[in-house]
Amino acid sequence: MSNPHHPNGQPRPSHVGRPEIASPLATHSDFIPERADLLLVTCVKTKLNVPAAAKDLYVSSLFKKQRAYAESRGIPWFILSAEHGLVAPDEWLAPYERYLPDTPMSYRAAWGAWAAERLELLEGPLNGKIIEIHAGAPYINVIADHLIAKGATVVNRLEGLTMGARLQWYTASGTGDTDPVRVRQGEQTHEAAAAFITLLLDESRAIAPADFLEHGGDGLKRPGLYSWWVDDSGASDLADGLDIQISCGLIYAGLAGATRWPSGKRSTNTLWSRIVGMHLDD
């Protein structure tokens, strides 16, 4: 691909017409759109060692700058994961080890097609959309054709830049790093989930099923987390029925309403419908 630069050394963004062949617009900055409709950034090797939201899982300096840039654009953005394809920033991921260039060509071909399909699934038709990608050639080369085939325009603003030059570009763009993710020592509980875990472990908030049903669902017809507790009598009944030793206390935690993987479709379950329909329905 061509690698045009401004006289002051700042890189010009380029359009990608095909992964191997730059569009004629690549050499004419007047035609480069200033604002994209969607933004994709690459995953990185350095990650937390505990599950986290995708935007928090990756902790390298490059990713922090990518994230800050993406969040400053005010447009939907996604992460290109070698393991999971295309993921939304708030999707919860476990740490993994997968490097796209080390995978077979057949995997990369399927990966590129799936990432493009999932983007269209989540954001609607891509025809006419401008998609800005911040990733290396191994990622762009296997997804660009699929996006272009759907009528999108692909923009690669960092084409040809070394890692150091990329970091400098983000600094020059005026977007700094996001705050570092803090992980509590010992239990290794991710801070973003700590508040939810605290509530789920608070037995004083538990109510009896009859009281729950009398509530009528007020404030509960929405997604959320919940936990089940049993007293001595309930633990004894469960132990007899399951033929295993069960103590009183917390026995289960559940989630109502979520984005299903790999379809990307959101569940319509609410706390009320799930608990009443799946747990208390005779």
List the helices and strands and how they pair.
Layout: E1 14-16, E2 38-42, E3 52-53, H1 54-57, H2 61-73, E4 77-81, E5 85-87, E6 92-93, H3 105-123, E7 130-134, H4 137-149, E8 153-156, H5 163-172, H6 191-200, H7 209-214, E9 224-230, H8 232-242, E10 249-256, H9 271-280
Parallel strand pairs: 2-4, 2-7, 7-8
Antiparallel strand pairs: 1-8, 3-6, 4-5, 9-10
Helix pairs in contact: 2-5, 3-4
Global geometry: elongated
Q: Count the E strands.
A: 10
Biggest beta sheet attributes:
6 strands, mixed
Supply the number of structural domains.
2
Give the N-to-C terminal Cα separation.
Answer: 65 Å
Spans where pLDDT lies below 50 across 5 or more residues: 1-30, 178-189
CATH architecture descriptor of the largest domain: 3-Layer(aba) Sandwich
Radius of gyration (CA) equals: 24 Å
- The largest sheet has its strands arranged as 1-8-7-2-4-5
What is the fold-level CATH name, i.e. the topology of the largest domain?
A: Rossmann fold
CATH class of the largest domain: Alpha Beta
Residue share in β-strands: 15-25%
The helix count comes to: 9
Following the backbone from N to C, one meets helices and strands in this order, namely EEEHHEEEHEHEHHHEHEH
Q: What structural category characterises the helix and strand content?
A: alpha/beta
The whole-number mean of residue pLDDT values reads 79
Helix content: 25-40%
